[in-house]
Amino acid sequence: MFVPALSANMRRWTRVSLTSLGQWPAPGLGQNVAAAQQLYYCSLVTASHRLDSCSLVSSLSQRVKTAQIISIAEAEVCKKLSTAPIHDVARCPIMSCEEHREIKDSLDKENSLDLLVGHILETNILVSSLALQHNIVWLTAPRITKTILVRDHSLPASITVGRVTSATDNLILNNWQDLLASVGVTQEMGKREIQCLPTDRTDGIKRNIIGYFLLQGIPEVRLAAESFQRLRMKILASGDFSEVEDREIIEFVEKKGKKWSELSGKMERIPNMILNRYTVLKSKEALVTEGEYNLEDDCSIMSQVFKADKDILTDGNVSRTDWEEIGRLLNRSVKSVQRRWIQYLKPTLRRYHAGTLDTDVREELINYLVENKLNYPQDIDWDKLVKLPDFAGHTSTSLSLLRHNLITSAYRKYSMKYDQVTADVIQHWWHNTKRLKPKKKREYAEALVEYYISEIEMK
Length: 459
Hints:
two-stranded antiparallel ribbon; globular
């Protein structure tokens, strides 16, 4: 680990060998033991050269005796945290940030959010110094993406954004439950606090403090704002809609229109969940057809899609109005016809153009996942995958669906849970199972292509 010399010359660094320190801190350091233990690296603020283990202990003992030096060093850390190498795992106490100390002094003990925040600050948990340096406050509802963060906040590559595994999600949820139990805040009160978006930076910092608690036990460096948002999405997106909620959605839209953000605040549900539920409810009202698609249905979808956009295979510019019209023609929901096009029809036509319609890429996909140790969908760069020659003609959606079907077959074979099926398990299933060639599926795909060639491509 590298420690910055936070004195006049900020560019000097001292390498600290923690293994050479023995028991730290040394006994007899008085009232400042706790602060010295948590901020041991800060006491090297005046170091100007590399120290050996003996001189290091001596230097530390001399400095931690003086509360003033520790106070100065602590303040320096708040202003400028370590810009350590990419694989930095340095941690510091959450109270080492001046902004957090100011918030602690102004908390309202009657407020549920403040109770949670106060408990975390009182415990003074250790957090990533790199994450604390980039203590970004997210004041809006849209999902945090790495593109936005790198563009707007110069986020370093060493901070992980997105691609959250189910294990990480479970840990975030478990930490949340532990926090509620520790403070005595009910699930309902906690959900109410999560629902509200921050109104200003101070409000956002409070949620970030909770975010740091949610990240406890997660090995990679992540932003507190993202972990809090992940919790918010998981909590608010969970649970089926009741009949009362269904009526509330329909009545609200009839009176005020499709103002999903406003309705979200009333229902304590995320806007996209409400939009999707509204679509389902309207589809049920229309008594739409459900079940499998036949050849006539698929040919109708292809005809209407290319009628709306002749370059649909490359640009994909079909409006929602067009999809609604296609849905009405087939007496199907918009979501259903869109899904049929994206998951099956589009990949089939792309594979035809790529000359890979009869190519079974399942084994190549399995080998790729195993060789690259890709056990979770979040780990896979789908855009990169579809550009590989082995998967010519496929889309990220078709390959993701192919992987899903392989996992389903494997977990049913071995009586496992879905998220327990790794790439190695899929490969073991593949090598130890007899499979019939999908003759009917191939013939169906060929019939679709024949219609496409004669009725769409040649006209």
